[in-house]
Structure prediction request, 448 residues.
Amino acid sequence: MTSTATSTILILGGGGREHALAWRCTHEGHAVIAAPGNDGIARLDGARCTPISLGDGEGVVELALREAVDLVIVGPEAPLVDGLADLLRAAGVATIGPGARAAELEGSKSLAKAFMVAHRIPTARHVTVRDLESGLAALADFDAPPVVKASGLAAGKGVTVAETKAEAEAALRECLEGGRFGAAGAEVVLEERLSGEEASFFVLTDGTHAVTFEPCQDHKRIGDGDTGPNTGGMGAYCPAPIVDAAVRAKVMKRIVGPTLAGLREEGRPFVGVLFVGLMIDAGEPSVVEYNVRFGDPEVQPLMLGLEVDLVPQLLAAANGELRDGHLPGAPAATVVLASAGYPETSTKGVPIEGLEAAMASARASSGQAIFHAGTGLEGEVWETRGGRVIGVCASGEGLDEALSKAYALLAEIGLEGGQYRRDIGSRAGFDLGSGPGSGPGSGRTPED
Prediction:
């Protein structure tokens, strides 16, 4: 699986997504510099971390040139929206990540909706509002409670899937009156709630050609059965059975193709990874949202299960040499362990028991990995540093095997107050029941 030529890859970011990408690149035999990275990435053979602020565009460009990197992968969305990829390309650095104008597809939900309407891309009926009075008037026009979305970047937490009109109004007031999401919530999209099943569809593109990854399914809500508030993602698996060959063909013809053509037409060149959040009803796909980078946690099973080399594809996309195709992957899944209080708050400095041993177990086995998102080393003790702490990932011959292995590995780890979902993969028919992994840490979490 190792590529014939060794490249030096600069990965920008420091979460679970960046750990999974770094793991993949080093697995293929490439050298990785992660900026700022995290303590989990620092443990990878062939990887090193360097502290830097992603808001320091000139500093990032200087780093890329000083290290003579062959490719930069911009992980998070905020630097892309701020134009970091433009700065890197202007300096002659091959980069995976769209420029600022293309990144507006994620940076502004209202712009993304207008884009979809202009290019006849299927999506839900919606209204964009900027003040409470017009918001309440628009809310009254919906027969059923709409989905309420802060238009700007809100770390995956700016969406309320309202069950009642009162809940929708409360979310609207939080954005426009309470300032919960700051400038990101100064503009709000009210959107008809679509029926069906969600899926995550990723393509790597040079702006014209595209290769697809295995379709994924994310689990956004904090609680089993899709209950509680939205999070950045509590687990994911791939491939998602809901995206069969017929649905995939419709997505490419009706959504991905028109999206790339529309971006070219509007002068928004897109080089990088395009995420299309889908709602699929009776085999018919509609767009819920766009992201302009790999999603997390979906990237974790994608990278673990990938059956062909990734880096040559990334280089081809960055250099305008990509060819249409598909990147096959084995069934894989990840389960996220989150700290107490997440997603509203996060608990920092709590020891993570058994993590070092579980990491050693994953390294010694085939098809297992632990990706760090909100961890840090205090001496020799792993502690929490954020809301989503780790992603426990496994692959297998089928999803049942992958999920069983992931939950069994998670069972070796203890975190006081930790939270995780027990129903990852339930829509694909997986039932954890009372088998291995029914609770991490031998009863040390509040749910057990």
